[in-house]
User: Fold this.
Amino acid sequence: MTNAYSAGSSRTPGAIRPDSVESEDHPWKIRLVDHPPRYESPYFRTAKKIAQKLLADMRDSDLPYGPRPAGAEHWEMHHGGSLWVKGPSSWRMYRARVGIEWSMQFCADPAKVDRLRQEAAELIDAFPLTLPALKALGYTNAEELLRTPITNAEGVEKWTDSLFNACVPLSHGNHRGILPKVPPGEHHYPWPVKGGDFIRYDDFQLWVSLPDGTHGAVAPVARRGEGDGRVRLLHVPEGSEAAGTLAQAQETGKMAVLPPDSPVARQAFARQNESG
Assistant:
């Protein structure tokens, strides 16, 4: 797998040749400048305090994304569309259709954000215990947020930093981590793949080391217990030697599959093999 494929190429998938190298003639530059101190709005500070109260009140089995942080670690609040509701027995968190990352608010159309507000209100209204419980915890403007149309940048900011967007509780690794030192984070890895961390069998290794030293993600090609040891390559970084092959497979509607005796497949199933 030594070929590279440029996403900017205008060639059709059928024109991609094995072992070919695609390139472009237009150089580009990025300037790295000092990052201004991030402004933490009062809306976000309040939302975080409420989220911490909700999490403290939840059973470990009800937490949305893994166990509570241990030691010096703490929950990091991700702007990922956090729709908190109070059910009959516990708090629950649902994900909005779209989450607004803090920096994305500056390109957000108020009318489109208002649709998110309306959808959130519809969900939360289906859980009538929610608003009274939030008010009792000190989140007194919850109903105002849900009922006030968003028409300008100020409204977008309030929604972006509210409990209904900014408080998806994640560990540092699951939030911003980069392989191999810490678990992969949602900010750096595609959510359709990263989401697998929260539903996979504990003894299946989703993230693996590739032969060229980069790291990727794989999934089985068959149901557990059927004896099929092949794995499908789902994600590799752009600089990986496998990137071109994976891109070609996706463009042509095929799967990039590794055989059961490959080092990658053996990593993925190693713990299952140890347990028989």
